[in-house]
Amino acid sequence: MIEYFNRFHINTRKRVQTVTLDLNSYYKDIVKEMFPNAEIVVDRFHIIAMMTRAFNQTRVQTMKKYDKKSIEYRLLKFSWKLYLKHFDELEVSQTFYDRHLRQQLTQQGRVQMELDTDDTISSTYDALQGIMSCLKNHDKDGIVYYLYKNENLSFQMKETLKTFPNCQIKCNTFDLFLVIGLVNRSLAELPLPIDS
C-alpha cells in the first residue's frame, strides 16, 4: 500500500483532507505517513459493528448464567436478531406467536421482556440503541453522552466505547457522508503518479 501511494507526489498527498477507515491501527500509521495533513475518520458501519459484537458477547455471556429451561435463557437465546434492530423499527402493534415463550407478543414487547430482567443487558442495549440513533439522527452531543454514560454497562461494551474517544466525533455523524464523498473525489482527482 505504501508503495502505491508513494507513486503520488507528496504535495498531492498533502492535499488529502480526510481518510475513512476502520480502527485497525496499522492503517492509521500508513495514513499518517502517506497523508500528513489528513484527518482519520471512522465510518459508522465499523462503530455499529463493534458495538453489535459487544452486545452479542454480553447477551451470550448473560444467557449462560441461566438454566437452559428458564425464561431468561430462552429470552436471550432465541429471537436475538430483534435486539440488533433499531428499537423504533420494532413492531409495536402486530403480534406474533413466540414458540419459545409460548405466547403472543409484539417484537417490541419481546425485547422489553428481556430488558426488564437484567440491568446489565438493559444498559448495554440502551448504549447500543442510543449511539445507533445518534448516528442516524446526526446527534454529536448524544454520541458524547453515550460514550461517557457507562454505569451498568457490560465489560465488553465499556471496552468497545473506550476505543471511540480517540476518534473525531464530528465525523461519526452527517459529516461522515460528506467526508466519504470528499475522500473518493479527492483520490479520483489526484494527478497521475509521478512515474507515469
From TrEMBL:
<protein>
    <submittedName>
        <fullName>Transposase</fullName>
    </submittedName>
</protein>
<feature type="domain" description="Transposase IS204/IS1001/IS1096/IS1165 DDE">
    <location>
        <begin position="3"/>
        <end position="142"/>
    </location>
</feature>
<dbReference type="Pfam" id="PF01610">
    <property type="entry name" value="DDE_Tnp_ISL3"/>
</dbReference>
<dbReference type="InterPro" id="IPR002560">
    <property type="entry name" value="Transposase_DDE"/>
</dbReference>
<dbReference type="InterPro" id="IPR047951">
    <property type="entry name" value="Transpos_ISL3"/>
</dbReference>
